[in-house]
Amino acid sequence: MSNEDLKYEVLKKDTKQFDLSFKLIILGNSGVGKSCLTLKAIKNTYDDFYTPTIGFEFLSFNVKINEHIIKLQIWDTCGQEAYRSIIRSFYRNSSLAIIVYAIDSKESFKALQSWLNEIKTESNPDIDIILVGNKADLDDQREIENSVGKKFCEDNNLNLFMETSAKTGFNAENLFIRAAQILYQKHQLDLSVDFSKVPYIPERIKIVGNDIDSELDIDNENKRKKKCGCLF
User: Fold this and answer.
1) What range defines the domain where residue 110 resides?
2) Count of domains in the chain?
3) 85-134, pLDDT tens digit by residue?
């Protein structure tokens, strides 16, 4: 099924119900606009003087795809070298990684291979990866051509490449919609699980891509059917 066949609807950030939940991590050098891009997509806000992230920030993005609600648990990480050892601990159980560079910065593009090597070393072997060239609004200051980003994506067998702009909003929301579509297509089988036929349902079930504190409480009294991508 192609992305064109997937009907989608972006939902409110406080949506409680969902069918699949995934952990998504955003990486890249400091100053490439990771946080601004995420905030533009989720809250439609932009600040030219946004303070760089220290450690990480946690946000969520909910989208309905073909009648199923997908929740993305977004871990927006800082890019400073001093925090790299801390950030590595967040790779665990991530279902998808977004690596961001700025089209006006050769330095941030050169760092992509280092970030990619780190992902492959520290995260799940089957993690999906999206490459993003941010700050598309600075085309007159471009140092990395679109074709160069595409080639890096193809050469490293990444799932997707796109250019974005946190300032104008170009492809900001679409980035997370596409991430949800990639994960939805990969985990459609999880949606077919019928828990009424599972002999034992633990009180707490870890969700696909979950890490430490987004576990799903199951109502043992009602024994309701609950479809989700779970790790038993």
Assistant:
1) 3-189
2) 1
3) 666 667 788 999 999 999 999 999 999 999 999 998 888 889 999 999 99
